[in-house]
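Filed under: proteins

Residues; backbone shape codes:
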Amino acid sequence: MKASFSALSHASWGKEDSTYVSERACPVCSTDQTRAVEALPGLQFFTDHPDVSKQADVCQVQCRNCLTLFMNPAYSDRGFEVLFSEAGRSYGDGGGRHDEQIAWLDKNGLKNETFSYMDIGCYEGQFLAQLPVGRRFIGVDFDGPAIERAKKNYPGDEYLFLQGRFEEISLDEQVDVFTMFHVLEHLPDPVGVLRVLRDFSHEKTALVVEVPVLELGFTNDIHGFFSPQHLTHFSKHTLRQTFMQAGWRIAESQDAADYNGHRVIAYPDDHVGEITADFEDYSRLHAVRASLSQALIDAEKSISQFPAMSQIAIWGAGMHLEYILQRTTFFERFRDAEFLAVDSDQMKQGRTWRGIEIRSPDCLEEFDWAETGLLISSYGGQEKIYELAIARGIPASSIMKLYDRVTTY
């Protein structure tokens, strides 16, 4: 079937559902006094559905008591089920850094053949399987199919894979080392989850957590710091407050050198102190918001230089494309153009995003690039997509790039 271009549609897809989100108190101090930070009404989560709306109003707020930044209202179980049905790997570090993470555990004395390990947000168990030593490997994830694949791929008696909500883990043994790489920020009740892990610990248990933090939230990506997949947006101070409330003491910490990652090692601690606020977090928030404004200014400069085209193919039909619609004037500037999206994710192929057909990148060979432009809709993948487009014979003059530089995740 020949690929077809079509106009962007702002029509509502599927039936609106108010049960996707629900109000929450501050996840750290439990108060309900907040100030608004950012709102993205009608944010669409991936492809259209003829019967079920996949849009939600996404709002970020800041607690007036402890200054924690968080999403409110947050996604309900129903919201996660519907909105994130095409998100794939919703939790976890996305792979690719396991060697570095394991080397870091070794450097900090946390790699030992007598230790038991639990990886929270284990997905298909690859991190645990790459640990070269250990007595017991336990993986936990809410993604049922991923857990079933983990059980099939790693059937040995030393492996135990559990499916379910992290707050409701049931285990009849103590764990020596917990790992949570880019998971805590996704959870509606981070304190509750850490308290559950405390129940499975002994006095020398180590808890390793890595999250993005406000202090490292400067980026030229139009997404900015507030990802719609993150329910809590930590600063270093609010992260310490979270651990304290859950009965853990952060003993060591370090920032990643090349991406927004703050990694800590914590140990059980019975002392629960008074919740405090670091008022510098308010200034940090505005500095991070200023960096997003600059990213949008830079993106607009790029868009203003795109050549006039009546047909535009868009490579990338994920959340970045929704942010192009939400935060830039791209579709206003090309309001008379027709569009087609391509994506390597087979789950998206054959569907539509806001009425625009999504096909495999193979269809790009059908087009006359003297009359068609190619917009790259990706931040981290921009340069790789550009290389693939050139390799397919698409002239550089027809390729539209939003970013003049891309930093590592």
Residues 89-94 have pLDDT under 50 and may be disordered. Residues 280-304 form the longest helix (25 residues).
